[in-house]
């Protein structure tokens, strides 16, 4: 896989794990702590306890959030929107996985699983195997933190510690994956960090490993207009200074805004899948979680699609 962001871009110096994974977990922890949460991830807070998450800390600390709201209501609205986005996305993909196992799929692969705790928190039918693919330091970190608190997987969990730029299908096979069985794949929170050719390659590799009847769920790559990206970077910088937080990295700097990127549903529909998309902005509205997104309100491409597909 070509041209992924460099490791140095993505890792938190202290723990060695991926910053983007910590930010997603911070939003899940924050939602879990809300009075009427859409999702409950009891492990997310534990998993980020040690992470330097910069301005995202405001999502976990009411007094910081109040300060942020009075200093910059637009950025507060944006963070609030990201928390809701994460909640809606987690719920959507939880339902996708639950539906797949209800349909007797017993092999699940979570690509770039990061600090996803589904293997620990969902109800899994007996005989299900979950494969988590991510970099060794991310999976080791997650396993170590949860094990130290006596938290064990609720399913036969196989960690596939491999960089997606390397021969990950071979590593998956080596962990016991059977390509002759239908599989439920999940690619959440990854495509936006890949350039267009790497996206195509990943989807192609998944297709090659998918028996008829397999399922695939993908969060497409959101893209911010150039002006919004610069504005958000500046706002984050200002707010981090105002709240005395160290902003380790700017998410906007890690994203690929690749104009040549394939539309995932179109790509899948011409490569052996039957795919449909639901827009996350619509999903936020349906679940009464739409607050407009503050500064990205007009940026319709900033709201990714949730794509689900079945292998024909
Ligand atoms: C935004 S996080 C999403 C994690 C998880 N899917 C979630 O939604 O919480 C992106 C994940 O992609 C992983 N990732 C990025 N590039 C990778 C690569 N080249 N090989 C393996 N994993 C990679 C990171 O380690 C990180 O855990």
From TrEMBL:
The molecule here is called: S-adenosyl-L-methionine-dependent methyltransferase
Its function, per the record, reads: Exhibits S-adenosyl-L-methionine-dependent methyltransferase activity.
Q: Per its UniProt record, what InterPro entries does this chain match?
A: Ppm1/Ppm2/Tcmp (IPR007213), SAM-dependent_MTases_sf (IPR029063), SAM_mthyl_Trfase_ML2640-like (IPR011610)
SUPFAM superfamilies, per this entry? Answer: S-adenosyl-L-methionine-dependent methyltransferases
* Species name: Mycobacterium attenuatum
Q: Name the Gene Ontology molecular function terms of this record.
A: methyltransferase activity
Q: Which GO terms describe its biological process?
A: methylation
Task: Please indicate if the UniProt record lists S-adenosyl-L-methionine as a keyword.
Answer: yes
Q: According to the UniProt entry, what is the EC number of this protein? A: 2.1.1.-
Q: Which residues form a coiled coil?
A: none
Q: Which family does it belong to?
A: Belongs to the UPF0677 family.
Q: What does the UniProt keyword field contain?
A: Methyltransferase, S-adenosyl-L-methionine, Transferase
Domain of life where this protein originates: Bacteria
Q: Which Pfam families match?
A: LCM
